[in-house]
Amino acid sequence: MALHVLPLAPPMNLLAKVRKMSINEDKLLDKLTPDKKPRLLPSHTFSLCLTLSLFWWINSNYSNPLLLSLGGASILLVLYIAHRMDVIDHESLPIHLSAKMPGYMLWLAKEIIVANISVVKHIWLGNSSISPTLATIDATQRTDLGKVIYANSITLTPGTVAVGLVDDHVIIHALSKENIDTLKAGRMDRRVTELEK
Amino acid sequence: MNLILEIASGLCLLLGSFLCLSGGIGILRFPDFYTRMHAVGVTDTLGAGMILIGLMLQNPQGIVLLKLMMILLFTLLINPAASHALAKAALRNNLHPVLDESTNEGRNKPSKP
């Protein structure tokens, strides 16, 4: 594993890095926008249609024909607009992950509960028990989607917040050093990498 | 069966309330913006989750359950984005995090003769 923590002696380094990151991101955006065609599959449209129908029905729970047809019409309108905007692709609708997602979510829920207990302990023990740390760790995911899932999982577990994502490195603010050590061990990283395969 | 559900629901609600209270106390206690954000994380994830699960157990059949599950799912999906945006905005605006001295400055200090 090529995980490492930057020497934290001057935290200014990291801050400068984060500031530089904004320029990098703008450049990256310019490079990506012009020729990127979303890969559109019929299954994506179908799953979006299904999700929208379910969403509409759960929120309204009507069953008389007039309202059902109005709901159907609004779903079709949304589908048409989504097509015009070219936003239906494998990133906005990651159906290729759906087989492995429930297992990962269960594991993440367990991690969230463990992290919650530790943060609540720190809260009640007071300021002397925490050791706020800013560190950089590597993300081994290949796709942007995988990296985003990894960074969001880090942020979702209390005690660690992903502050920035530069290429393959995630900058993390953690409530205590142990949190960073847990992340450096790389179990979450491996899980997400397996998820996107 | 109803009694068990009622008790389980009550326990979940109580635990959720305790976690939300802890999050609030953390916001008051912790030293700076970033550490306070971690305290909010407790309220956001397990606090809200436990309260929603408690409410689900109150009415385990019907459409209310589905709606509550939807709320839980969206809370968990949207929270990280909001936390990340807050943290990044703070860091870009030069709000320096309070870091632990023993890990950061202690190493550089010259040892006294």
TrEMBL record, chain B:
Superkingdom as given in the UniProt entry: Bacteria
Pfam families: PhaG_MnhG_YufB
Transmembrane regions listed in the UniProt entry: 6-27, 39-57, 63-82
Presence of keyword Membrane: yes
InterPro entries: PhaG_MnhG_YufB (IPR005133)
Keywords noted in UniProt: Membrane, Transmembrane, Transmembrane helix
Protein name in UniProt: Monovalent cation/H(+) antiporter subunit G
Organism for this UniProt entry: Shewanella schlegeliana
